Amino acid sequence: MVNLSGPKPHQLVPEHSDRIGSNSVPIHLKNQWIEEGFVCIPSVASRSEIEDHNKIVTDFRRLLDDCLDPYGFGDRIGQLHQVCPDLMNISAKSEIVAFLSWAFGEDPVLFGSLQFEKGTEQSPHIDAIFFWPEPAYAMAGVWVALEDVDPEAGPLFYIPGSHKWPFFHSDDVVDRRPDLKERWSSSANIDEVGDLVSAVGNAWTEDFIAMERERGGQRITPKIRAGDVVIWHSLLAHGGATRINPTLSRRSVVYHYFGKTAKLYTFSQFMLTARDDIKNLQPTVMPRGSYNGLEFMQFPQFATYSDGIERVRLVEDFTGKV
């Protein structure tokens, strides 16, 4: 049984006296962010911007040797904007940047992107465990619909208010599992680290699903049309509904941002480090570039996926081919 009275949740927004009603972000979006952890901004991307984005991704997929599913759809592609910078065009839209600047209390920096052709069918998950931000509110996911989303195509869902639930760190998880805690507390050698990270990650997911069930969390599927943008809090649980009709596509892109002065840590660091200690580790530091005024982290690689297997590729091997 998960202890619903703890651990304590994290701070949701910066402590700014002018946080409400003092800039271009509508008050109803600010209130919804605080209460639900999720907002939808309609018609951010134009039809031509969507067409341009989809063409770049489609042309790039022709260069890949990854397998398609039985219905002709490719799997996700991570960090493709490192190869094709124009895929950051929508990510730099003023509506997105303005909202994130308010939510973070400072300018946002783009650090990741994922291109999708089909629904993910992902179980509820929280982005912060994969790239932990300090402070916890200084990271968000931004999902852009690149076509109208059919309810049978595996639409996005979220659990309103789950960003305010007690939030488990790795020490909270292992404290309830003596055998796992003994492994976690000892100095694992390099060959054991991967297995330990997976074990703690699986335990974290078990505890979250149990808390969702005990709290009666409701999975909400918003109606989303091409060009709409949804933004979720780093601590908000979300996922992908079942693809009832797998012949339907669900073209979309997810961007991940963090605050300009925030620190960003890896999944392994989160899973292997106690809540109060993680901020003392070395955060992810990469060179930064700029696209239409938006700062972004520059990585030398991107990733393709096939049957759940990740393949890391060098940006330089594909630059100029699209």
- Report strand %: 15-25%
Q: Based on CA inertia axes, which overall geometry fits?
A: globular
What's the CATH architecture name of the domain at 27-155 and 223-267 and 283-317? Sandwich
The helix/strand order is HEHEHEEEEEHHHEEEEHEEEE
Under CATH at level 1, the class of the domain at 27-155 and 223-267 and 283-317 stands as Mainly Beta
Describe the main β-sheet briefly: 10 strands, mixed
CATH fold description of the domain at 27-155 and 223-267 and 283-317: Jelly Rolls
Uncertain ranges: none
| CATH H-level superfamily title of the domain at 27-155 and 223-267 and 283-317 | q2cbj1_9rhob like domain
Helix share, percent: 25-40%
Distance between the termini: 52 Å
Pfam families: PhyH (PF05721)
Protein name: Phytanoyl-CoA dioxygenase
Organism: Sphingobium subterraneum
Cofactor: Fe(2+)
What can you see in these coordinates?
Pfam families: PhyH. GO terms for molecular function: 2-oxoglutarate-dependent dioxygenase activity; iron ion binding. Its cofactor is Fe(2+). InterPro entries: Phytyl_CoA_dOase-like. This is Phytanoyl-CoA dioxygenase. With 322 residues, this protein is of the alpha+beta class. The chain has a domain at 27-155 and 223-267 and 283-317: Jelly Rolls (Sandwich), CATH 2.60.120.620. Helices cover 25% and strands 22% of the residues. It contains seven helices and 15 strands. It has helices spanning 27-36, 47-61, 94-104, 170-174, 178-185, 190-215, 267-272; strands spanning 38-41, 77-78, 108-116, 125-126, 131-134, 139-145, 156-158, 229-233, 237-240, 252-259, 263-266, 288-291, 294-297, 301-306, 309-314. Strands 1, 2, 3, 6, 8, 10, 12, 13, 14 and 15 form a ten-stranded mixed beta sheet that branches. A three-stranded antiparallel beta sheet has the order 4-9-7, with no helix packed on it. Strands 5-11 form a two-stranded antiparallel sheet. A hairpin with a 2-residue loop joins strand 14 and strand 15. The radius of gyration is 19 Å and the shape is globular.
